[in-house]
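so the lab meeting is tmrw and i was supposed to have these ready like two days ago... anyway. pasting both below. for each one the top line is the aa sequence and the line under it is the structure tokens. i havent really looked at them closely yet so no promises
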Amino acid sequence: MNGLRSWLARRLLLGGGQTVAVVLLVFALTEALPGDAAVVLAGDQPDPGRIAAIRETMHLDRPAHERLAAWAAGLLHGDLGTSLTSGRPVSSYLADGFGPTLLLAAVTLLLLVPLAGGLGVLAARHEGRLVDRLISSVTLGVYAVPEFAFGVLLVTVFALRLGWLPPTAVGYGDDLLAHPAALVLPVLVLLSRPVCSLARLVRAGMIDALASPYVAQARRYGLPGARIRYTHALPNALAPAAQQLARTVDWLLCGVIVVEALFVIPGLGTVLINAVAERDVPVIQGLAVVFGCTAVVLNLGADLATYRLVPRTGVAA
């Protein structure tokens, strides 16, 4: 128990340091962007005096370190700041975009885990045979296709040519759950690469686990094949896949910008794109904090899952 506590303390300290580093890096990168919100608000033919007045009103004329210190002080009280372009709290932007992104992530995960696990176990059971070669070839081929290209292909075939599904979520608002047809193509695109990577990891883990001494011992005791595969071999095979699954969840919640832009879904990715276009630094920074904390929590959860599945890995950690 003491070993677990010290390991958990190290992970929490590392995660806190990573979050601080992400915040500082995003602030530095947003400072390097050409122009700012004052230039955007001033219009197409801005007057220098008007830009200066707007910049003073927004406190953009203050030194960067003062603005960073003021924003960091607000974070300590749970205040993510206020949008420069609309005056709304940054938390309201996050609340508006979180629902569609969370829905896409949840539906994708519900399909991803059983599909990737099933394909990986099936390929491992038939190692070297036709089923294994077919699954490996298909997953490798699909993984090589970028999400944007795969999305365009799906829209062209199933929306424009066949007319079976809507090409975008335009007209459905935020309530995508009431229009499941609008979710089909985005979910297929989000599934394409994670299914391939997870299935290959599960396959490799299952092959190693099925060749291990403890599985051979279980076979000598006459245990049923299904019990050996799913009770003894699969937990060890899932340990490396747990890390990849955490990165996948992080990507689903924080990095679906391409998919949301392609299918016009009003999620966090769309909020980020609009904030960058408007040079709305507080919104960008607020998203960075949420994304950074999400990544830290998910990776910590994956480490804990790995520790529980294969306790001996905690020694190395």
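ok protien two:
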Amino acid sequence: MSTTKKITVAALAAALGVSTLAACGGEDKDNASGSGSGSKTVTLVSHDSFNATPAVLKEFTRQTGYTVKVLKSGDAVEALNKEILTKGSPQGDVFFGVDNTTLSRALDNELFTPYEAKGLERVPETLQLDKDKHRVTPVDTGDICVNYDKKYFADRKLAPPQSLEDLAKPAYKNLLVVENAERSSPGLGFLLGTASAYGDSGWQDYWKKLKANGVKVVDSWELAYNQEFSGSAGGKEAKGDRPLVVSYASSPPVEVLFAEPQPKEAPTGVSTGTCFRQTEAAGLLKGAKNEAGGKALLDFLISKKFQEDMPLNMFVNPVAEDAKLPALFTEFGEVVAAPRTMAPEKIADNRDQWIESWSSLVLK
């Protein structure tokens, strides 16, 4: 299936509000409308990028008796905002998609019921975002990085940018598209990466330089990567004209996996000096109608079976130390040796102020 077709299917499912994965374990005749007391359906609320192999979800059903229903709610930031608005009366049982950039908002709003997932000892403590209280369970990691269109730069004999500093240089004027930090998880991650690099007082000056250098801001990763970016299959079809985009270090394997025929080299590359490490987690929603099913699903999300299924479905890294990466992922993905990071406490203390400042500076 081509990237464009894959995105179209996902977009249709998102528009309907229910993932096509909902039927993977079979219909719950006793409670087909959703989760509830005694229900054999467990509902996972997620951002639009959640995906899993149907056979893997069927294995969860075989092991537990629960069928997974997936409700997709937009980009990660948008999905979290919806859960905050419905806290206490959640749309489902488990929420997947909170990460280190937004964790404090979820915890401050008391969205989750603590639960220590079975198998958590296989996850490094450094990735356990709430290790003392277990309100969330780490599921995956990914590095938010600028990706580049190899052909564009080769045709012009121009070296791709490799650092944040490079992006502000005249040679790369009008080439970069980024996501809105107010609405998009990678957009927020990229903003935090610049704050980590330039400090509390220096990141705004950096963004002034990016703005002067023609940075384009769009609302979501889907728009940035699959419409504006000239290096992606979707971007080529949409005649995107930006050869630089904020995406992930694991994005190049996507362009290989869904190409027909598969190329020997990924058509996109990663500017490894621009990266910020993101850790994504899931939590049992407070007020969940099927709490037992939600706990079983959290156990499964860090199981070896699910962890090894993620890379070629969501193009993220597993957190379980015993999970192996597929060859295509390791061959065409980029290993970032030293991504920027930031303490969750610092993010919590500054995120809203930084977003407000960024919006005033870049969007107006």
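from a quick look at the 2nd one: The longest strand covers residues 268-285. The radius of gyration is 20 Å. will dig more after coffe
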